[in-house]
Design a protein that fits this description.
Chain B: InterPro entries: AAA+_ATPase, ABC_transporter-like_ATP-bd, P-loop_NTPase. Chain B: This is Phospholipid/cholesterol/gamma-HCH transport system ATP-binding protein. The complex is a heterodimer of chains A (245) and B (256). Chain A has one domain. Helices cover 84% and strands 0% of the residues of chain A. In chain B, helix 3 packs across helix 4, helix 5 packs parallel to helix 6 and helix 6 packs parallel to helix 7. The chains are: A mainly alpha (245), B alpha/beta (256). At the A-B interface, helix 2 and helix 4 of A face helix 2 and helix 3 of B. The complex binds adenosine-5'-diphosphate and magnesium ion.
């Protein structure tokens, strides 16, 4: 029963994001701030993780290719496939559920427990629009983050391959360009957009509707991380069976 | 002037306000007192239009909130100011930006007009050079002043304060009480204050409404509260020896 109630409240919240919009002069700086906090602020960690995980994928692939009949370019091919299809969109989204998600939940939750949300409502502001809409807009730039993750992941693979002595640059690059299917890109970016939506709305939901004090803000952030990740995984499974299956 | 008639408010299965009728006059400080959990904050949030209520009516100078159109509601909202218990300043904005915020939401004034108004109001609450500070850098007393400045910046007709001096030292608490009273009289505002501070009751209780378990148990003023025989009131107000002494002295004085 409570699950159904929560899901209902979530969808009502989604509708409220777009109702009674806040004045543009007030909204604009909020959007810029959220782009800075959520997108720009995540580039460092995303770049770091992508580059090194790309490297690890390349090393693992080449270590597991013990048979001499396997072509050398396979390392580049396998690295590209795993990074574009899963690692960049899905794995990075789980990382973002921790970083961006808990930031969103704790900042909105703190506003709830310190009555800042009530203060907004007293001024006749649609607080859901005021708080969640800028995050939603900021996260429409999320595909940009994932593109960087894809590029750096493949680059990391190349570096590890060449400097670790697992293969030549020519072989790796041949593999990266091999059998390229444009629909895989489309699939990856459809996922990215859906994950961006989940990343903006689920943590906002847990922050906005929380009750209690500072301790509960911490708990809400944890719950928000768990549910955002679970939904990313479920949606990933559904979209993959739908689009590639 | 605000008139409340037979107000009922519940949360799921908990009946919090069980039929409250009273009125609050213009140009004076009206106090709501009662123990923690007696429903003061819920009552205030009903007055603010933050909570919907199941039964009863609240009329603001003749306008019944629940019967207004959306534009009329926005209009009425722009006439209300609220000082929250923990000040509720927006912690991502400077003090000046906090005070300016209602003007940006409700008016079409130019930046320089808004800045002038913010300067006047911050001066009025005796905060002259804190414009650029963040709320987290201000003391509790300063934050309260900023909250008051934000509440009055748009010249409200109705001012609501939820325990405005909780968490302040006694001296600052008195300063804040006096500030609210002066502003109320100066601008002829209908002010409603939640408190459980006995100093405030004695000092600024022009009208006092005592809530107990969601019911209006007693109403009067800081003059009549000394004479009441209502046991719930005397138990609550004169719970400390100090205030029992004050009461005895007052009654003796009165008898002479
Ligand atoms: N949003 C809410 N949801 C459910 N119960 C609430 C809510 N707000 C207040 N209550 C309950 O209403 C009662 C009165 O609370 P309140 O008005 O905050 O008391 P106080 O007089 O201390 O301000 C309490 O029992 C509280 O638990
Ligand atoms: Mg209270």
């Amino acid at each position: 029963m409570t699950y159904l109630h929560n899901i209902g409240t979530y969808f009502i919240m989604i509708k409220d994001i777009f109702r009674r919009p806040t004045k543009w002069s007030v909204m604009k700086p909020l959007i810029l701030k959220d782009i800075d906090d959520l997108i720009i602020g995540s580039l460092g960690i995303v770049a770091f993780i992508s580059f090194f995980v790309g490297g690890v994928v390349a090393i693992q692939t080449s270590l597991n290719m013990t048979s001499p009949i396997m072509p050398k370019y396979l390392v580049g091919f396998a690295t590209r496939q795993s990074i574009i299809l899963e690692f960049a969109p899905t794995f990075i989204s789980i990382i973002m559920a921790g970083k961006v998600g808990s930031f969103i939940t704790s900042s909105i939750g703190t506003m709830r427990v310190t009555e800042q949300i009530d203060a907004l409502e007293v001024m006749g502001i649609n607080a859901i629009n005021y708080l969640v809409f800028p995050k939603f807009i900021a996260l429409t730039l999320y595909p940009f983050v994932i593109s960087i993750a894809m590029f750096l992941g493949i680059l990391g693979g190349l570096m590890a391959c060449v400097y670790g002595g697992y293969g030549t640059m020519e072989d790796y690059l041949e593999g990266v360009q091999l059998d390229f299917i444009p629909f895989h890109f489309i699939y990856a970016f459809i996922k990215t957009f859906v994950f961006a939506f989940l990343l903006a709305t689920i943590p906002s939901y847990y922050g906005y509707f929380m009750k209690g004090g500072a301790l509960e803000v911490g708990k809400a952030s944890t719950t928000s991380f768990v549910w955002t990740s679970v939904l990313v995984i479920i949606v990933n499974f559904l979209l993959t069976s739908l689009l590639l299956g | 002037m605000i008139e409340v008639k037979d107000l009922h408010k519940s949360f799921e299965d908990a009946h919090i306000l069980k039929g409250i009728s009273t009125s609050f006059e213009k140009g004076q400080t009206n106090l709501i007192i009662g123990q923690s959990g007696s429903g003061k904050t819920v009552f205030l949030k009903c007055l603010l239009g933050l909570f919907e209520y199941e039964e009863g009516s609240i009329s603001y100078e003749g306008r019944n909130f629940s019967k207004l159109s959306r534009n009329e509601k926005t209009e009425l909202r722009s006439e209300m100011g609220m000082v929250f218990q923990g000040s509720a300043l927006f912690d991502s904005m400077t003090i000046a930006e906090n005070v300016m915020f209602p003007l940006r939401m409700f008016t079409k004034q130019s930046m320089s007009e808004m800045e002038d108004r913010v300067n006047i109001v911050l001066k009025r609450v005796n905060l002259d050079n804190a414009h650029k500070k963040m709320p987290s850098e201000a003391s509790g007393g300063m934050q309260k002043r900023v909250a008051i400045a934000r509440a009055i910046v748009n010249r409200p007709k109705f001012l609501f304060c939820d325990e405005p001096n909780s968490g302040l030292d006694p001296k600052t608490a008195i300063v804040i009480d006096n500030l609210i009273q002066e502003i109320t009289e100066e601008f002829d505002i209908t002010t409603v204050i939640n408190t459980h501070d006995m100093n405030s009751v004695m000092e600024i209780g022009k009208k006092i409404v005592f809530l107990k378990d969601g019911l209006l148990e007693w109403e009067g003023s800081n003059k009549t509260i000394f004479k009441t025989e209502n046991e719930a009131v005397t138990n609550f107000v004169y719970s400390s020896e100090l205030f029992r002494k004050v009461r005895r002295m007052y009654l003796e004085e009165d008898a002479q």
